[in-house]
Amino acid sequence: MFKALLHLRKVICAGALIWCGLITAGAQPKINAKPVPQLGKNSIKEVIAAMTLQEKALMVIGGGRTGTGIILGDGSMIGRTESRLPGAAGGTNAIPRLGIPAMVLPDGPAGLRIDVKRQGDNKLYYATAFPSATTLASTWDTALVKRVGAAFGNEVLEYGADIILAPGINIHRNPLGGRNFEYYSEDPVVAGNIAAAIIKGFQSNGIGTSIKHFVANNQEANRAGINELITERSLREIYLKAFEIAIKKSQPWTVMSSYNLVNGTHTSERADLLTTVLRDEWGFKGYVMTDWGGKAKNLIAQMNAGNDVIMPGNANQVNRIISAVEHDSLDVKVLDRNVEHILNIIVKSPSFKHYKYSGAPDLKAHAQVSRQAGAEGMVLLENHGNALPLKSSQKNIALLGNASYATIAGGTGSGDVNKVHVISLAGGLTNADFMPEAQLAATYNSYVSDWRKRSRELNIADYQLNTLAAKCDVAVLTIGRNSGETKDRDLDSNYHLKPAELSLIDRTATAFHQQGKKLIIVLNICGPIDTKAWRTKADAILLAWQPGQEAGDAMADVLTGKVNPSGKLATTFTENYEDVPSARDFPGTPAASPEQVAYREGIYVGYRYYDTFNIKPAYEFGYGLSYTTFKISPVKLAAALVKNRLTAQVTITNTGKVAGKEVVQVYVAAPAKSIAKPAQELKDFAKTRLLKPGESQTFTFNIPVASLASFHNDKNAWITDAGQYLLKIGTSSRQIAQTSIFNISATMVTERVHSVLHPPQSVDVYNAQ
Ligand code: BGC
């Protein structure tokens, strides 16, 4: 029957036999024929019932790399023919006869990634580069991150797109992960809550999101072919947990499966992951798409798994779907189910609603949001003798380091943004009425104008440093690092400082300290670096991360005290790279070109490992200084659990001399009765408003008993042990201000889940769990 409807024809193209379908079935309804169902007017089921097999196939295959439709062997196109948003990563196909529009899907996590120039159009189409995900997470401010999502999402809407391919939410398993800047944290509670906030902000515009990469895309080395062996417990407690929190709290329209394999199978082919866990256990209601052009080639397995759309999509895949149904290797009911998932989202999209986008979002207003979030994500790591903020008597600055002039807004790859400008630190300080020394600035500006030189520090001779130290009030030296898609960071040249950088820090410190003047180091970096080799030389260290296009202004805001730093580390800086629990297993075996990686550290990722095994980090999870001080009151614990929730209240007071914000962090140490447990885990957090000196704010935390549970592989269940628990409230994982003991009287199975995701062989985890 389908064959009769389809009028398929074969054409020979480039020596290959390609099936090319023409959408003719039903396209010209006969006179008196029943009207063709229309999406929005008829039910989704009726629309699906009216679809030809080819039309269904066109729904589950994306609209090509440019999102402009499927190119057939003869060069013609189906699916969609116009390109409304040049530079968008992809789109879905349109079926005009059924009233189904194409949707446009651009990247990516740090801002809308589109082309600046369009053919035959003189206008320039810039988008705002917001701070990197790691910077946003360091704000620990869900309200602010939601505002970023709202501003960013408005650009998605006003440029005519439907779904933004963001946020990325994979866990920082190892600092060398090339895409960590696109991700939030080593901790699933921070990652999940920050992601939920940005998704709510995005989707408040009536556009959709694609939370990615589901799951465990934690390295770029062989990212599409790496087989990751992970225990169910580590998946459930760490890698899936971040997604679970975000999906339950914010219902993203779509999920993007990852490139990698988990326990022997590509994630896009795992029904247990994409249907059992995602839909049945967590209640996800949107659709799932693959990442772009992955190595998983089994379309039938992907369709059956509930990976609804293959991206970016091509004609060959359309025809393979058609053929699979015709040859009974793919049940048309599966196809119908997946099409239904997609149509459920299309009806919500701006394209379906014929939204009249302006093509001119308010970039000026969004730049201010970017600047604020950039400044609030910065973490003050050291501040000896109140070296910061800069005083008005320190206007003349010896501004050193390539990144002070070629400041890095964000990472590379699909997470890059075509922004109108990047304000350098030199520009930001000048805007704030501070004066980078002119001759030095001219030398640097000319040097970094050749982008190839930027990764090699400009060599400054000792005599120049001595002259600068005599002439200037203070030295500010920026260290820059970048990374991006397809490549992990190099341990020697990216994680560790290069000899030229160490020498510049060393010699600048000597020259300025001899004159009784200070050295401030600014870190404009994508992820943690080594600080052991040099940090004692600095009077202050400001971790500015990659704070977006307004970088220099945001940095100057914090350096000059206009903004009091309130960022906290959402990822640990270890004393040695070798202290990282996955260091032995990253990026897998064989080392030269890894095929498999065992997550032998199990659940002991980040501070869960350092705190349990007494490894002192350089800067711990949750850490960050302020220009003021705070005090946390003793905890008031409610006497009894209400609705299986523990209620704890604290008041925090600004005890210093300037206004500031603080992050209150709630950790719990659980009794390790039935299985081993981390020494403590973050359960909740909150950020104060700007508190004036002497001002207080009270927080009430409601902690569900279910969130105290650990996952038992053998029982497929989350269990909260009976016994004594310690509640710890502080301003970092190691600066605990108040504690309180509470008891759980009976062991509780808080949730039973399906027996899924098992590794094919037992994963040899280091620590009993
Ligand atoms: C990346 C995704 C991105 C997609 C589309 C892939 O290479 O992994 O994060 O959304 O390309 O550009």
Automatic annotation (TrEMBL):
Fibronectin type III-like domain sequence ranges: 662-733
Keywords tagged on the record: Hydrolase, Signal
Signal sequence residues: 1-25
UniProt keyword rRNA processing present: no
UniProt source species: Mucilaginibacter yixingensis
GO terms, biological process: carbohydrate metabolic process
Protein name: Beta-glucosidase
Family named by the database record: Belongs to the glycosyl hydrolase 3 family.
